[in-house]
Amino acid sequence: MSISKCNSFFGRGGWTWASRVAKVAAVALLAGCATTVPARVTTFQQWPADAAGATWKFDTPAAQRDSLEYREYADMIRSGIGPTGMVEAQAGKPARFTVSFSYGVEPVQVRVERPAYDPFYGPWGPWGYGWGGFGYRGRGGMGFAWGPPYPPTWTSTTVDASRASLRVEIRDARQNGQKVYESTAVSTGSGDSIPQVMPYLVRAIFDRFPDTNGQVRDVTYEVEQRR
């Protein structure tokens, strides 16, 4: 389901209570309707103090050297490294830091709360006037009925989802190739499209680079809608 369709879908009715909105957001995320991308970032680092201005290069696995997908993600990471102050080494030139990354997606199952029946129609049809007043009978024919509509009941259920991940590692030649940085960003949602979520995983890793050693943090990014 596209974001524009999701906005239209969730725009029906008068669901304005904060608790309901929170639950709808959780359901939307796993229904492919999310307008945000959440990620959990775990970082470990022993970043040298004299890294500013130092050169770096990719350590590309032989199996990935002809991969167009890998190159696309490498460009994203290159953009993420730019603001750190390091400079990419020219082709064929030595560099102090080597950067490697890996990525993937795996199917998972997660538990979510969702309405036990259609919250937009309920027992009487759709309504948009909140508690009290009139309730419009959209399915049962024209007419109005006094009294508040029943709120939807919620049930916990297991749904299929996917978990996309990106891991970035950096090694320092001045420390005999020792690893000085490693960070993993993970996002769980519907679908299995790594290209769509990868820009946000890269942002999650580099937004606070090099971050605090042993830091685990949750971030959320607004989805950039394509016109």
How would you explain this protein's 3D organization?
The chain is an alpha+beta fold and 227 residues long. It contains four helices and nine strands; from the N terminus they run H-H-E-E-H-E-E-E-E-E-E-H-E. The chain has helices at residues 3-10, 18-30, 68-81, 194-206, and strands spanning 36-45, 55-58, 87-88, 97-115, 134-136, 144-146, 154-172, 178-189, 215-222. The strands form two sheets. A seven-stranded mixed beta sheet has the order 3-2-4-7-8-1-9. The protein has a two-stranded antiparallel sheet with strand order 5-6. Strand 2 (55-58), helix 3 (68-81) and strand 3 form a beta-alpha-beta unit. Helix 3 packs parallel to helix 4. The longest helix is centred in the N-terminal third of the chain and has 14 residues, at 68-81. The radius of gyration is 24 Å and the shape is elongated. It starts with a helix and ends in a 5-residue tail after the last strand. The model is unreliable at 1-32 and 123-142 (pLDDT under 50).
